[in-house]
Design brief:
With about 300 residues, this protein is α+β, with helices and mostly antiparallel strands. It has helices at about 15-25, 95-105, 125-130, 170-180, 230-240; strands at about 5-10, 30-35, 40-50, 65-70, 75, 85, 110, 120, 125, 140-155, 160-165, 185-195, 200, 205, 215, 225-230, 245, 250-255, 260-270, 270-280. Strands 1, 2, 3, 4, 7, 10, 11, 12, 13, 14 and 15 form an eleven-stranded mixed beta sheet that branches. It starts with a strand and ends in a 17-residue tail after the last strand.
């Protein structure tokens, strides 16, 4: 079993919980998810299975799209409704235009500070564990890309929004930062992921209904990349991880054999195609267990 399941993650489960469930159902340890969703969040959670776990790194920067709701008036310790209130409630006294202006100010390339209650590691320890022990947690700012942060509806004190952002962006932090910019505090109350790269909510299946037929096969992945076909000596060189003399446009390439088997992810440059990850080889290269998280 090699490919990707697109799961519609239910509220209340961690991404790791979903991975463990799929491992049990399909009796395989080789499962990893493409980008964490908080327990409160729902929606698209792609899971790589088998050999697909080896190419999770190439999905890391894929854009993600969300819809959700922010509650104005006070911040929380976790930046969402599951945390404790910080300070007293302060009703928002501005206008719709103020909200839209400050949301636009949180787009583009941003230096974002991850929440203290997150899976980021500090001195080798998950920061949410240190935060729950009452320890001070300080994260360095991380550069993230927010393509869109749009107001969809305002019913005081709730703001419904849409976000399109790059991997590694914390939508909780966007909600918190919006509250700071508006001067009233804010926190995230709901979040649903509609898209993760090429994987969309209309492709997603409920976790308790996932079956073999829902698997997106390995050879259907990265279909928008250029594809080269090899056979004979070139196929043997590819399986051994050796570069192949071949003209192709600069960038990522899928290498397939004449039978349509996805052999490797490669990079084309200067008349050569260099395999980066070989998915099948002349010797066994598929031992081991994939990391639970790949972005």
């Amino acid at each position: 079993m090699n490919g990707v399941f697109v799961i519609d993650k239910p509220e209340g489960l961690t991404s790791h919980d979903v991975v463990q469930y799929v491992r049990r159902v399909f009796k395989t340890s080789r499962v990893g998810h493409l980008g964490t969703l908080d327990p409160m969040a729902t929606g698209v959670l792609p899971l790589c299975i088998g050999k697909a776990t080896r190419i999770g790194q190439f999905f890391a920067t894929a854009p993600k799209e969300y819809i959700g709701e922010i509650r104005l008036g006070f911040a929380t310790t976790t930046y969402d409704r599951q945390g404790e209130r910080v300070g007293i409630e302060q009703p928002f006294a501005g206008s719709l235009e103020d909200i839209e202006r400050e949301m636009r100010g949180l787009t583009g390339s941003l230096d974002q500070i991850p929440p203290a209650y997150s899976a980021k590691r500090v001195a080798g320890v998950r920061s949410h564990r240190a935060a729950r022990r009452g320890e001070a947690v300080e994260h360095a700012a991380v550069r993230v890309e927010v393509n869109a942060f749009e107001l969809q509806n305002f019913a005081p004190p709730s703001v419904q929004f849409r976000v399109v952002c790059g991997g590694g962006t914390y939508v909780r932090s966007l909600a918190h930062d919006l509250g700071l910019r508006l001067g009233c505090g804010a926190h995230l109350t709901s979040l649903r992921r509609l898209r993760s790269g090429d994987f969309t909510i209309d492709q997603a299946v409920h976790l308790d209904r996932v079956s073999d037929s829902d698997l997106r096969p390995l050879d259907t992945l990265f279909s928008d990349w250029q594809t080269v076909s090899v056979s004979g000596i070139e196929e043997r060189r590819c399986r051994q991880g050796n570069p192949i003399a071949m003209e192709a446009e600069h960038g990522f390439v899928r290498i397939l054999n004449k039978q349509g088997e996805f052999l490797a992810v490669a990079v084309a440059e200067s008349g050569w195609v260099h395999p980066r990850v070989v998915l099948t080889s002349t010797t066994s290269t598929d031992a081991g267990v994939a990391s639970t998280q790949m972005s």
